[in-house]
Amino acid sequence: MMAWADAERWARMRSGEDCPICRRGGPNDVVADLAVCWVTAGERAPMRGYCCLVVKRYAVELHDLTDEEAVAYMRDIQQLSRAVQRVTGAVKMNYEVHGNTLPHLHMHVYPRQVGDRFEGGPITAGTIEDSAYGAEQYREFVEQLQWQLAAAGAP
Ligand SMILES: [Zn+2]
Q1: Residues paired with residue 39 on neighbouring β-strands, in sequence order
Q2: If 69 and its partner were Cys, which of 65, 96, 113, 151 is the partner (CB 3.0–4.6 Å)?
Protein backbone atom coordinates (compact mmCIF):
# COMPACT_ATOMS: atom_id res chain seq x y z
CA MET A 1 0.00 0.00 0.00
CA MET A 2 1.24 3.44 -0.87
CA ALA A 3 2.28 5.28 2.30
CA TRP A 4 0.00 8.23 1.46
CA ALA A 5 -3.16 6.12 1.81
CA ASP A 6 -2.53 5.80 5.57
CA ALA A 7 -2.88 9.48 6.41
CA GLU A 8 -1.79 9.10 10.05
CA ARG A 9 1.32 7.12 9.19
CA TRP A 10 2.23 9.55 6.40
CA ALA A 11 1.80 12.49 8.82
CA ARG A 12 4.15 10.76 11.31
CA MET A 13 6.67 10.17 8.52
CA ARG A 14 6.40 13.76 7.28
CA SER A 15 6.88 15.10 10.81
CA GLY A 16 10.09 13.08 11.17
CA GLU A 17 8.63 11.15 14.12
CA ASP A 18 8.48 7.92 12.11
CA CYS A 19 11.46 8.45 9.82
CA PRO A 20 13.67 5.36 9.50
CA ILE A 21 16.72 7.46 8.57
CA CYS A 22 16.39 9.65 11.68
CA ARG A 23 15.69 6.64 13.90
CA ARG A 24 18.94 5.01 12.76
CA GLY A 25 20.83 8.30 13.08
CA GLY A 26 21.60 8.30 9.36
CA PRO A 27 21.14 6.37 6.14
CA ASN A 28 22.79 3.07 5.15
CA ASP A 29 25.82 2.85 2.85
CA VAL A 30 27.27 6.28 3.73
CA VAL A 31 30.47 6.81 1.73
CA ALA A 32 31.07 10.52 2.40
CA ASP A 33 30.02 13.28 4.76
CA LEU A 34 29.60 16.71 3.13
CA ALA A 35 28.57 20.08 4.59
CA VAL A 36 24.83 19.41 4.96
CA CYS A 37 24.43 15.98 3.32
CA TRP A 38 25.54 12.41 3.62
CA VAL A 39 26.48 10.70 0.36
CA THR A 40 25.26 7.14 0.11
CA ALA A 41 26.23 4.61 -2.54
CA GLY A 42 25.26 0.98 -2.21
CA GLU A 43 26.60 -1.99 -4.08
CA ARG A 44 23.04 -2.69 -5.21
CA ALA A 45 22.20 0.26 -7.45
CA PRO A 46 20.20 1.20 -10.54
CA MET A 47 23.50 1.75 -12.36
CA ARG A 48 27.20 1.97 -11.68
CA GLY A 49 28.04 5.28 -10.02
CA TYR A 50 24.57 5.93 -8.63
CA CYS A 51 24.64 7.99 -5.42
CA CYS A 52 22.09 9.51 -3.11
CA LEU A 53 22.52 12.80 -1.25
CA VAL A 54 20.61 12.73 2.03
CA VAL A 55 20.18 16.03 3.89
CA LYS A 56 21.40 15.54 7.47
CA ARG A 57 18.84 17.78 9.11
CA TYR A 58 15.30 16.46 8.88
CA ALA A 59 13.51 18.29 6.09
CA VAL A 60 10.87 17.18 3.60
CA GLU A 61 10.60 19.82 0.92
CA LEU A 62 13.28 21.93 -0.73
CA HIS A 63 11.46 25.00 0.58
CA ASP A 64 11.93 23.73 4.16
CA LEU A 65 15.63 24.58 3.95
CA THR A 66 16.80 27.98 5.15
CA ASP A 67 18.60 30.16 2.61
CA GLU A 68 21.96 29.19 4.12
CA GLU A 69 21.07 25.49 4.06
CA ALA A 70 19.84 25.75 0.46
CA VAL A 71 23.11 27.31 -0.65
CA ALA A 72 25.12 24.66 1.21
CA TYR A 73 22.87 21.94 -0.26
CA MET A 74 23.51 23.20 -3.80
CA ARG A 75 27.25 23.22 -3.10
CA ASP A 76 27.03 19.61 -1.90
CA ILE A 77 25.07 18.68 -5.05
CA GLN A 78 27.68 20.32 -7.28
CA GLN A 79 30.58 18.75 -5.39
CA LEU A 80 29.08 15.27 -5.69
CA SER A 81 27.94 15.71 -9.29
CA ARG A 82 31.40 16.87 -10.37
CA ALA A 83 33.10 14.01 -8.52
CA VAL A 84 30.75 11.34 -9.91
CA GLN A 85 31.13 12.67 -13.45
CA ARG A 86 34.92 12.61 -13.15
CA VAL A 87 34.96 9.07 -11.79
CA THR A 88 32.43 7.61 -14.22
CA GLY A 89 32.93 9.73 -17.35
CA ALA A 90 29.16 10.22 -17.54
CA VAL A 91 27.82 11.85 -20.71
CA LYS A 92 25.07 13.50 -18.62
CA MET A 93 24.31 13.73 -14.92
CA ASN A 94 20.68 13.23 -13.85
CA TYR A 95 19.18 14.49 -10.56
CA GLU A 96 15.90 13.41 -9.03
CA VAL A 97 14.07 14.51 -5.88
CA HIS A 98 10.89 12.58 -5.07
CA GLY A 99 10.51 11.38 -1.47
CA ASN A 100 7.24 9.61 -2.22
CA THR A 101 7.99 6.60 -0.04
CA LEU A 102 10.62 8.14 2.26
CA PRO A 103 9.96 11.88 2.69
CA HIS A 104 13.29 12.73 4.41
CA LEU A 105 14.80 15.05 1.77
CA HIS A 106 17.19 13.19 -0.54
CA MET A 107 18.37 13.49 -4.11
CA HIS A 108 19.16 10.62 -6.46
CA VAL A 109 22.21 11.30 -8.62
CA TYR A 110 22.66 9.18 -11.74
CA PRO A 111 25.65 9.22 -14.08
CA ARG A 112 24.20 8.46 -17.52
CA GLN A 113 26.20 6.60 -20.13
CA VAL A 114 25.93 5.92 -23.85
CA GLY A 115 24.04 2.65 -24.12
CA ASP A 116 22.76 2.60 -20.53
CA ARG A 117 19.49 0.75 -20.18
CA PHE A 118 17.50 4.00 -19.94
CA GLU A 119 19.23 5.76 -22.85
CA GLY A 120 17.20 8.63 -24.28
CA GLY A 121 14.79 8.83 -21.36
CA PRO A 122 14.40 9.13 -17.61
CA ILE A 123 15.34 6.46 -15.08
CA THR A 124 12.34 4.23 -14.43
CA ALA A 125 11.39 3.74 -10.79
CA GLY A 126 12.05 0.44 -9.08
CA THR A 127 15.06 -0.55 -11.09
CA ILE A 128 17.65 -1.50 -8.47
CA GLU A 129 20.02 -4.16 -9.78
CA ASP A 130 22.23 -6.57 -7.89
CA SER A 131 24.78 -6.50 -10.67
CA ALA A 132 25.47 -2.81 -11.25
CA TYR A 133 29.09 -3.47 -10.30
CA GLY A 134 31.41 -6.33 -11.15
CA ALA A 135 33.88 -7.82 -8.71
CA GLU A 136 36.01 -5.11 -7.08
CA GLN A 137 34.26 -2.36 -9.14
CA TYR A 138 32.15 -1.17 -6.24
CA ARG A 139 35.10 -0.79 -3.86
CA GLU A 140 37.10 0.97 -6.60
CA PHE A 141 34.22 3.33 -7.33
CA VAL A 142 33.86 4.28 -3.66
CA GLU A 143 37.60 4.88 -3.29
CA GLN A 144 37.76 7.02 -6.43
CA LEU A 145 34.65 8.94 -5.43
CA GLN A 146 36.03 9.69 -1.98
CA TRP A 147 39.28 10.89 -3.54
CA GLN A 148 37.43 13.11 -6.04
CA LEU A 149 35.13 14.52 -3.35
CA ALA A 150 38.13 15.47 -1.27
CA ALA A 151 39.75 17.07 -4.32
CA ALA A 152 36.53 18.87 -5.34
CA GLY A 153 35.92 20.01 -1.78
CA ALA A 154 39.26 21.76 -1.50
CA PRO A 155 38.96 25.55 -1.53
ZN1 LIG B 1 14.65 11.35 8.71
Answers
A1: 32, 53
A2: 65
